[in-house]
Design a protein that fits this description.
This protein has about 220 residues and is of the alpha/beta class. Helices cover about 45% and strands about 25% of the residues. The protein is built from 8 helices and 7 strands; from the N terminus they run αααβαβαβαβαβαββ. Strands 3-2-1-4-5-7-6 form a 7-stranded mixed sheet, sandwiched between helices. Helix 3 packs parallel to helix 4, helix 6 runs parallel beside helix 7 and helix 7 packs across helix 8. The longest helix has 15 residues.
């Protein structure tokens, strides 16, 4: 079945034109540098572009840059005066990301901050930084904390997207032995009672396997 998911993804990737030379070059640079292939798929990247454009986003926060594939997709959907701040822990990833952003012509609109994401988010929050869209795609154990801070920084009507919440169905494992699953489950357990947001979760299949997004709308 997995092969069918991949084939369908490739079919619609071609049918919709979801990839292009700049995005393909970003993936090539990531592979050449030995970065893990955990970027969003082209169709998922197109979704990020569309959500940013639908929101007319002017201030985007990305938690987890990797090689900046999703960063490029998000930035392409920003309003003309928009700015994107992306957070990356690994200096090697950040180096590849900066090169990819330069190739995409986006260095003047994207600020890449290296270091622990929670520290950066707390600093941004203390400085009064506000956002109208966030994409959270860093270590899954930290999702509850990243999400809470993103909500605190969010303007009314902001859209928050959390990646990799299904984890091939492992989200159902309540044993607590996998920190990533435990982080997702702590996050999910808080959603129904969090009056600051309205949320939904969409399961996905394709070239990235079986996973899903949680999308939140800030009140």
């Amino acid at each position: 079945m997995h092969h069918t998911w991949e084939a369908v993804d490739r079919y619609f990737e071609a049918a919709t034109g979801a990839s292009d030379a700049v995005l393909s070059a970003a993936l090539g640079a990531a592979a050449a540098a030995g970065l893990p292939p955990i970027h969003v798929s082209p169709l998922q990247g197109r979704l990020l572009t569309m959500l940013a454009q639908l929101r007319a986003a002017t201030s985007i926060l990305e938690v987890g840059t990797l090689a900046a594939y999703s960063t490029i997709c998000l930035a392409r959907g920003m309003a003309p005066q928009g700015r994107l701040t992306t957070l990356e822990l690994d200096p090697r990833h950040a180096c590849v990301a900066r090169s990819n952003l330069a190739t995409a012509g986006l260095l003047d609109r994207v600020t890449l901050i290296e270091g622990p994401a929670l520290d950066a988010m707390r600093t941004l929050h203390a400085r009064g930084h506000r956002i109208d869209l966030a994409f959270i795609d860093a270590d899954k154990a930290g999702i509850p904390e990243y999400f809470d801070l993103a909500v605190r920084m969010a303007l009314p009507g902001a859209v928050l997207i959390v990646d990799n919440v299904v984890r091939d169905g492992k989200v159902l494992d309540a044993s607590g032995e996998d920190p990533s699953v435990e982080g997702v489950r702590r996050f999910a357990a808080s959603l129904a009672s969090d009056r600051r947001v309205m949320c939904t979760t969409l399961q996905t299949v394709g070239v990235k396997g079986y996973d899903g997004f949680t999308i939140a709308l800030v009140a």
